[in-house]
Amino acid sequence: MRYWRQEGRRLWMDCEIGSFHWDMPKKWKLSETHPDLLKLAEWVLLDPWTPGIIDKHEWSRKPGKKPGLSFSAGIESTAAMLIMPKNTVVAYHERDFESMLKHDNAKRFIKRLRWRHFRKVTIVKSDHEKIRTHFGKANGFSTDLACAVHLILMADFLDLDSISVGMPIDNSWLAKGRKFRDFPNTHWYNKWPPIFKKAGLEIILPVNMISQAGCLEVVQKKGFADWAQSCLRASAGDTCGRCWKCFFKNSLLGHPVDTSSNEIQKFSSTEPLKTAAMVLYASKKTGMFDNLPQLNRFSHINLDWFNQIYPPGFNLIPERYRDEIRRNLLELLVEMSEPFPLESTDLENPPYS
After folding, report:
1. Strand pairing category for 121-126 and 89-95
2. Which is it for strands 202-204 and 174-175: parallel, antiparallel or unpaired?
3. Which of 15, 63, 91, 329 could covalently link to 161 via disulfide, CB atoms 3.0 to 4.6 Å apart?
4. Does residue 231 register a pLDDT over 90?
């Protein structure tokens, strides 16, 4: 059984494996939060280990009026923020426990958004990423949508009708960033969005039709390249230059990268190649491809199109927001031409295409 309680601004979830907390906004109240949202949060947090959480639950929450965005301050969620409607509510999850990961760059960016761009960003501290450690796993999100639990819990308080996450082509239409799949017919798409919708919270994937490369261009063209930061190991305003994300993201922004680092050497030597499409796009654009002989098997691959828009992705956006997101994106990027090269992408099985 799971039990929710509030002590001042701190919300607690007591469950079979312990107690986990969130530090909520001042006027947020557990008593004014619909039971559907609590049940949805439990499901997103515990489903991998506790089956049946939502079985027989009768959903009744009505949608609010605003879209919400789970904001990480990284490239993809920033791109999502930049093409979403102006009334989008932005909220950031901060780890509330000792960790290798740093929030310095994110806080620097959020401060910039607040003071220079007059953008309200709500920060919620929580230790829910420790749930995984009870099952022998490293700290992290229990499921893909656990990154948005803070928004689920605030959905009534913020009057939300939907929750957005920065899921690009690399995680939607490409399985593990390598091989094309019919995303709307995947297990993921048929599991999560229908239940969220029953709770009056549609899932919006505003960047599902562009890749990490496309997101990077959106951020650059909007003037946020010096602020949005996916590297979680560097101090504010800096990059580490040695992690996997620096390798295929920050390299495209001109930041120095050490391709001899253990992490870059290890991940670029995996078979199948980790995050293959974006890695090949970035390494070929920057010339780093020639420094990594382990990638030679992909020398014939051309990914010049990887920063373009995949038009079928717009069909996954709720109709009330689709035209605005499409219009905003088309001001920044071009659409792929048919036949769409994305649909013939297979960087998992030789001979690679």
Report:
1. parallel
2. unpaired
3. 63
4. no
Q: What's the chain's Rg over C-alpha atoms?
A: 20
Query: Closest Cα partner for 149 from 170, 163, 134, 161?
Result: 163
Mean pLDDT, residues 307-332 taken together: 98
Which helix H or strand E contains 89, and what residues bound it? Answer: strand 89-95
The owner of tokens 């950031």 is 92
**Torsion of Cα atoms, 133 then 109 then 322 then 65, to 10°:** 80
Nearest to 212 by CA among 249, 175, 161, 182: 249
CA-angle at 210, arms to 334 and 287, nearest 5°: 85
Let me know: does 166 contact 80? Beta carbons within 8 Å: yes
Determine if the pTM surpasses 0.90: yes
Q: Are 40 and 168 within 8 A, CB to CB?
A: no
Q: Half-sphere exposure of residue 256, counting CA atoms within 13 Å on the CB side? A: 5
Per cent of the chain over pLDDT 90 is 88
CA-to-CA distance for 211 and 244, rounded, in angstroms? 17
pLDDT in tens, 114-144: 998 889 999 999 999 999 999 999 999 999 9
* CA gap 51, 47 in Å, rounded: 6
Residue 338: which of 304, 312, 301 has the closest Cα?
312
Please report how many Cα atoms fall inside a 13 Å half-sphere around the Cα of residue 80, on the Cβ side.
31
The DSSP letter of residue 335 is: B
44: helix, strand or coil: helix
CA 26 to chain centre: 26
Structural contact between residues 162 and 68, judged by C-beta atoms closer than 8 angstroms: yes
User: What pLDDT does 182 receive?
Assistant: 98
pLDDT band, residue 1 (cuts 50/70/90): confident
By three-state DSSP, how is residue 121 classified? strand
